[in-house]
Design goal:
6-stranded antiparallel sheet, globular, mainly beta
């Protein structure tokens, strides 16, 4: 079981992650929806497409843009559609 932990709280866990470039992409259903806050931030990957971000909020603290997903990934990254990955201090393992 792979877990994502931030601020000493498990925010996602699944035995069905997809690893791309060293990042575990969790099924959206495996992420605690109440910790995600939509963000206007986007970035572009040449082979995955446009990434959208969520900030993560736990116990009154917010980790801005600490999660990302590809709503419409390019064909080469189709396996991560509907999945979320983490960074910026979120421990995944």
């Amino acid at each position: 079981m792979v877990k994502a932990i931030w601020n000493e709280t498990v925010i996602a866990e699944s035995d069905d992650t997809v690893v791309v470039e060293g990042n575990h992409y969790f099924p959206l259903a495996a992420v605690r929806a109440e910790v995600l806050r939509p963000s206007a931030t986007t970035s572009r990957c040449p082979w995955k497409g446009t990434a959208n971000y969520y900030s993560v909020a736990v116990d009154g603290a917010t980790n801005t843009d600490a999660a990302w997903y590809y709503a419409e990934p390019l064909a080469a990254a189709a396996a991560i559609k509907g999945r979320v990955a983490f960074w910026k201090g979120v421990k995944v393992g």
